[in-house]
């Protein structure tokens, strides 16, 4: 792995991350391919949106189809037909958000599989074993996502456990070409975050992520943590803000110095008939779109806007045609990647703050859903 | 419209049908685009499968989004982004199969909308009005689908009503370029079928369809009607067997002299994880495909087989990923169009009977689902 920062605009930075399966311009947004597919779309469509790296879920893929099946294909890249970089999460967040009857031990977490109710155990070594089998370019350390709200004591205990788990992850050897990122926890307590980061840096990782944000806390809380902590993260390593987010959060994250993001919003909202545009969100259920023969967004160069009307997409959404979910996903993925391109250009030209103000003014107008 | 038969192999024939939006090689199979989309796929993907004409449903489109919305786009072609020929059915079959509280009057059918429970009226004039608004290349006369089984008296009464409705359909003026096909009914009674055809030919249509087949009757019944009736249909007009069918039914239909078919099987079965191959159906639920790294069908040139394994498709199907339904649909559409190409070639070379025997032997082997 090589990571180079080519330009800085205050705390924001742009650069390039070279991984085993290709390079990624940063700041980068990673579409989420939970179960071996970015929902509804093919790898070609993901690539056409401008995405250079996608995220795969260790938790989901470990349960179904299981590592044996994926290993038979020589890894996740070939299994799903995506030959670019893949980052896999550790499963820690899903254990926290999806699994029932969770028991946290020092060794790892025992829980009930949401697929078949069987008892599953996932700890640092298991997560590394699965991610090694998946063959992802970037492996994430297995962590515990600290709940929100959490007392200082809870947050500290949880952060320290994640740190011990991170050390165990680092001790596992990965496949050639794979790199490992550590995840800083500590809830909304800045000193705990600093302690977590220091501990991770002492162990030494190829990149550092902020976990446990965007978990229900007020926006101001996340902003405070981001602004305080991000500038203290290693300057020469990629910084990844996990599970974020909305366009406004991406702008705030980049401004604070973040290089990588992932979020299900563009894909999930597409399936719910929410389409992102520079003028705010188009909600297809809104009757104003009933006979709208224009595209979702005038001037948008995505394949959906080039060919289909808002009216048609609204119809597909209303009748539950899968094609609608797909066409909307294609637009949203394109929108997010376009935004990242614009953000990178703005950083390169030292005008991120101005770009963000202009973007947010227009985006907040909500005009897209009016006419 | 121009229709020319270029070659005959016993009763089978191949030719070309020239419609307002392009030409169609016959015998042709029309994928079904019920609600303004061939489920899960784009018009480009339909085109790449080899399909030259698709079917749209008057019943569904009339209810949602309604003709006003489609007229705003200048018709169904632009609404859905398919610029090739479209045939629209009349809604008669759907009224019979989908609508509740159906009351059949001489004027038409009053029923409860399956969408919102409101009372809807559909008769010959209403069906023509909707199909004119849709702007399809081929308009189907509004008919009553005779139930199976039906007494001779019921079948006769129903057939005569369809004939009177057909006359009223013919009296409605369509848009320039649109052509109108009549639909022969008469249940399994050959003399009623002959009477129906004679009545339709007296009125005069651009093509003739057989309705009320493949509605639950034994295969031998359909074969008998087909073999007796098809050769009596106008030789210089296209003959369309509605709602058919399985590969074996397509072969039987072509052998009897049919030129056009439509069926939801390739698309619906794809969504259920059934994939057509020359060696029979691959059922993705079958555990033999769990780690199968080969394609659905060796040598198949469809985009799905070129890139994805049976194992991957099985996984997508198991976890309910929409992408799976789509990749399977692409394969099945391709398979059906390939079969039609092979059938046309066999007819042209006077070897349909031999081709059919060879195909059915292999297809019936079921080998595809074994290893």
The number of helical runs of chain A is 14
Portion in helices of chain A: 40-55%
- The CATH C-level name of the largest domain in chain A is Alpha Beta
Arithmetic mean pLDDT of chain A = 97
Q: What is the name of the CATH architecture of the largest domain in chain A?
A: Alpha-Beta Barrel
In which order are the strands of the major sheet of chain A placed?
4-5-6-10-11-12-13-14
In whole angstroms, the N-to-C terminal distance of chain A is 47 Å
Q: Give the oligomer, counting copies of the same chain as homo and different chains as hetero.
A: homodimer
Principal-axes shape call of chain A: globular
Number of beta strands of chain A: 16
CATH third-level topology of the largest domain in chain A: TIM Barrel
Largest sheet of chain A: 8 strands, parallel, barrel
Main interface: chain pair and counts? A-B, 37 and 37 residues
CATH H-level superfamily title of the largest domain in chain A: Queuine tRNA-ribosyltransferase-like
Backbone CA Rg of chain A: 20 Å
Describe this structure in words.
The structure is a homodimer of 371-residue chains. By secondary structure, the first copy, chain A, is α/β, with parallel strands linked by helices. Helix content of chain A is 42%, strand content 20%. Chain A has 14 helices and 16 strands. Chain A has helices at 43-48, 58-63, 67-72, 76-80, 92-98, 124-134, 152-171, 190-203, 219-229, 247-256, 265-271, 310-319, 322-348, 352-365, and strands at 2-9, 12-19, 22-26, 28-33, 54-56, 86-88, 100-104, 109-112, 119-122, 138-140, 179-184, 207-210, 239-241, 260-263, 274-277, 280-283. Chain A has an eight-stranded parallel β-barrel, surrounded by five helices. In chain A, α10 (247-256) links the parallel β13 (239-241) and β14 (260-263). The longest helix of chain A has 27 residues, at 322-348. The model of chain A has no long low-confidence stretch (mean pLDDT 97). The interface between A and B is large, with 37 and 37 residues.
């Amino acid at each position: 792995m090589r990571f180079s920062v080519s330009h800085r605009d205050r705390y924001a930075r742009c650069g390039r991350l070279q991984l085993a399966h290709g390079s990624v311009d940063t700041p980068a947004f990673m579409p989420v391919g939970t179960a071996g597919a970015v929902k509804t779309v093919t790898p070609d469509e993901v690539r056409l949106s401008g995405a250079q790296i996608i995220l795969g879920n260790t938790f989901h893929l470990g349960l179904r189809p299981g590592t044996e099946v994926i290993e038979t294909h020589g890894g996740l890249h070939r299994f799903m037909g995506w030959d670019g970089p893949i980052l896999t999460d550790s499963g820690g967040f899903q254990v926290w958000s999806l699994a029932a009857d969770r028991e946290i031990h020092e060794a790892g977490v025992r829980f009930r599989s949401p697929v078949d109710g069987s008892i599953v155990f996932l700890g640092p070594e298991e997560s590394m074993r699965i991610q090694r089998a998946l063959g992802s370019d970037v492996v994430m350390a297995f962590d515990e996502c600290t709940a929100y709200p959490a007392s200082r004591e809870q947050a500290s205990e949880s952060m320290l456990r994640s740190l011990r788990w991170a050390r165990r992850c680092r001790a596992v050897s990965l496949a050639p070409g794979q790199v490992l990122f550590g995840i800083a926890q500590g809830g909304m307590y800045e000193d705990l975050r600093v302690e977590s980061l220091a501990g991770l840096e002492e162990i030494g990782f190829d990149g550092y992520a902020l976990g446990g944000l965007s978990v229900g806390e007020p926006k101001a809380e996340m902003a405070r943590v981001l602004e305080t902590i991000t500038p203290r993260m290693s300057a020469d390593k990629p910084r990844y803000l996990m599970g974020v987010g909305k366009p406004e959060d991406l702008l705030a994250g980049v401004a604070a110095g973040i290089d990588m993001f992932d979020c299900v919003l563009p894909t999930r909202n597409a399936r719910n008939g929410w389409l992102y545009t520079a003028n705010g969100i188009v909600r297809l259920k809104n009757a104003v779109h009933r006979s709208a023969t224009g595209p979702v967004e005038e001037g948008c160069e995505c394949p959906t806007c080039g060919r289909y009307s808002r009216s048609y997409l609204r119809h597909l959404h209303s009748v539950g045609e899968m094609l609608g979910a797909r066409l909307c996903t294609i637009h949203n993925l394109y929108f997010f990647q376009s935004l990242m391109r614009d953000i990178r250009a703005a950083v390169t030209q030292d005008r991120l703050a101005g770009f963000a103000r202009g973007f947010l003014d227009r985006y907040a107008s909500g005009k897209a859903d009016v006419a």
